[in-house]
């Protein structure tokens, strides 16, 4: 029996074949509540590719060596042919086991203690067609932790065979459609009985997710029935005549790629993770990209003495596992004092300016794309965290008034070009010193 995929590998694998049966017979979907029946769905759905979602996942993994190590250490459960996929609850349990478990691992690593997941939650109330308040129930909802608990994303489950591309296709347009084409389709839909091109099942489901978007004030809602993943982006919330706008963006994912021209043949796990990463961005939550923590060392009174002029050097030694790198002073720097040479090897590169001890604590990505890597050097006088895992400090140059760090990226695929530097060093007024790009270019060969 072959081993199942690791959490890292699974994002480029198809979902397991569990129940070999064709699934339940398609039936007519009824509105889940009076308020759902009364909802007004978008007139037009603009279909996008999965490219942006997949790129987000690739960038998150490429930028976080420790995350890759974590995900590679855990495997998915065995593919159990005994697992039926007949009822909606069957889909819920299989999704939790084979799809959401690795996704939660990623979200926990990138956004620790910043979110909460709820299942079968009833909270917000909306008015039904009789003007009465009734609760809204969400199959799965992810919210921001603390404060007002802003909704990040909602996931709605359905039985297999109930989410059918043909039921939606008359309302679908390419995201490249012109404004005239979009407006023409809206006018045509508004003249129809029921004011929609959607067939009954698609209409019921689109009304439901539109109501979720309105009640949570969150545009990121996913519809999933194991075979099809439909990712909605309701980016026109607040229009008075519609629950979630007269148009919305949609990404349709089916691992077979079968169904219609707007179906993306892509990996469902990866698309859903990318969708959630975008949802966290929309909620203005910033990921923690590096995870190495400096071990605390016993206080050494001698190490806190006042410093003199001169240079100190620091070197990050890359070991077999980047998550267990050692930090210490570079013995190659002739200007090191005896005191600095005696620092414990787990200590990060340090420099003492006037009063106290200043630690170079982090090199953090602000953005990552194909052309450049943007970093911010943070000088922190008190933090015990050394978030510097994928970056190697070549030298730290100090005086009584300045600190400048010279850095290089360990990633072997990265190439430095002196005439077109990929480094963008942003200046933060809270920094204790100035960052010298010329110094960087002088030392980085």
TrEMBL record:
Q: Where does the record place Polar residues bias?
A: 29-38
- Region called Disordered, residue ranges: 17-40, 291-355
What's the protein name?
Answer: Uncharacterized protein
Taxonomic lineage of the native organism: Eukaryota, Fungi, Dikarya, Ascomycota, Pezizomycotina
